[in-house]
User: What shape does this take?
Amino acid sequence: MGKPRIVVLGAGYGGIMTAVKLEKMLSEHDATLTLVNKNDYHYQTTWLHENAAGTLHHDRTRIPVKEVINLQKTEFILDTVVSIKPDEKKVKLADSELQYDILVIGLGFETAVCGVTGLEEHAFTIGSINNARLIKEHLQYNFAKYQHEEEQKPERLNIVVGGGGFTGIEFLGELANRIPELCEEYDINKTMIRIVNIEKTPTILPGFDQQLAEYAMSSLESRGVEFITEATLKECKSDRVVYEKDGKLVEIPTYTTVWAAGVRANSLIEKAGLDHSQGKVKVRQDMRAPDYDDVFVIGDCAMIEDKNGKPYPPTAQIAVQESETVARNVKALIDGSEFQSFKPHLLGTVASLGQTDAIGNVLNNRQLVGWKAVLLKKIIDNRYLFKLGGFNLLMRKGKFNIFH
Amino acid sequence: MGKPRIVVLGAGYGGIMTAVKLEKMLSEHDATLTLVNKNDYHYQTTWLHENAAGTLHHDRTRIPVKEVINLQKTEFILDTVVSIKPDEKKVKLADSELQYDILVIGLGFETAVCGVTGLEEHAFTIGSINNARLIKEHLQYNFAKYQHEEEQKPERLNIVVGGGGFTGIEFLGELANRIPELCEEYDINKTMIRIVNIEKTPTILPGFDQQLAEYAMSSLESRGVEFITEATLKECKSDRVVYEKDGKLVEIPTYTTVWAAGVRANSLIEKAGLDHSQGKVKVRQDMRAPDYDDVFVIGDCAMIEDKNGKPYPPTAQIAVQESETVARNVKALIDGSEFQSFKPHLLGTVASLGQTDAIGNVLNNRQLVGWKAVLLKKIIDNRYLFKLGGFNLLMRKGKFNIFH
Assistant: This one.
């Protein structure tokens, strides 16, 4: 097929790691490599909650594509994907159209509003650098404004987080650290602030042992977070949220609702006509779409099951590991070598609870809490940076302040 | 009259310097001294434009009262003055009432809306720490929001400053420095920003020589500031301003209008029934109100004329120099010593044009521009800190980075 053209869509965890690996595995004589992304930077989705709370600058979280991709070897196109046409082997971008021989789809997730009225208009989400930065500024603006108004509005100081999953809890942890700083900065009495988490199920952090979830709750409660469990967010308005608990509707006045509950795969997947389940492509063991031998799907757009038929979670860890399989199998398509099956190495999961606390479920179901978990989280973060951009990137963006 | 009670209203330049001097001049056996202020800090009004632009943190500008006043010697009351009743020798505060024997009024200025419709509702002013902090946050919020919206609104990036006087120009100078930083922080192209100054007269900075005013204009223009002179602000709405020039009405879409034109003395002066001219008490040469031997007025609430009948400008320099006269004459009232007349030592005026440029009219009408004027401005600022709180305060809050 001549010199095949490989097109990678998306520079999230899966996409950019695939591109980085392909650059190393293939020579320019083997294939041409194109990476498409709507920003000229990659960002670490798992750090965004820190940018949103204002505990970490967003420039620490994003990495210019050109710092990890060799633009001499790889063509980088800064554009938005509009549609994917696998039958024609074409991808439509906002400004152009691409023809591919081999496609890797790593377009990540979108927010799912889960039937909550007004969510799209009035709630924030933590899904991108722009969103995270806006949440930070929104909080600061409201704290400044509170001080400025004659009639002081609790809406400005109440913060509601919808969903007690991974993102919600990690964001609450950062917020709990950040609030005392914000109060000092804007001359506000700490007791005026309300941080409320609304969670549908009886407990937070599904996927963690009950014991660890309880540790997380009491760690956050001790820093002022209120949990309202077995409650459903019903409506989000410009100045309040309404939730239902025990059959009753309750209102909380707030200008700041952060929706950290529902995510779904990028809706372009569905529109592409790829066989999907709840928006995700149930890929084969070699990470290819079931109907197309030349289309790989990775990360949050892909669903792959373990030997018990349970899907692996949509985490950065899995996406990064999948990139190894995808890159090898792209190469196999080109040089006829053998295809590999995806085999994850589950290293466990750590959820941070702010700068000074964390919980972790690690290998052999060992549990970690407190500073050991904080340290492990930083090791995981730094390990990724090293994989992505080597020692230089690690030194520039790594987290080394292990005592804080 | 037993042990007289001295009450100083306001901890601005005039008020706090009077209190600091009285603490040194009088012993506790001579009199009791009470200072009333609505914040527990003094702030340097002349630095607020830096806080508003975001080039200096507001904590650098404010100084806790307790750091310069000895609370063992002086009673400090954190409260707002509601009314002054000179006939009854009483001052009504929000939470209590004070009886005085000698009163010093240093309640500063208020914004005058000068007949511009909607100004109070929709424009910002730079008159306090809260206001300045809000302007900073408002700018950041709008820059963040601009990036976030599908339909990008120029309202978020246009900044209109009403008035080309001292405050307006100094604020524009800081803004011109700050905008490139903000653009980098929020990923905005610098060419999208519009900073507009609207000034009624044909030139800016009345009180400075034409040559210096022109220097200031071209310094600011070279950094992107647009001047619209001989134009009158007519109306301020939530999303635009309307000005009139050459008989035509012109609109500028903006969420950020900063009103830096009209100020007037605190309106409590008028309400107190003190003899006033345009809200200011035309004090005697010893700084006492014409009708009351026990009431001193200082700073922006007082008007005092030079030998040609021209009022001294309402500057920090004059207020600080007046405090010397006021403190001595308060003592004279108590111990029967001789009254002094106010004699200013006019050291000239420096207007900053951002961190790296300034203009100055100094002694003997010498003119300074550029780094020499920047340096002089810092010397003036540091000199005040030294006077107010000695070496310690100077070291903590002073401006020493003379090369930037």
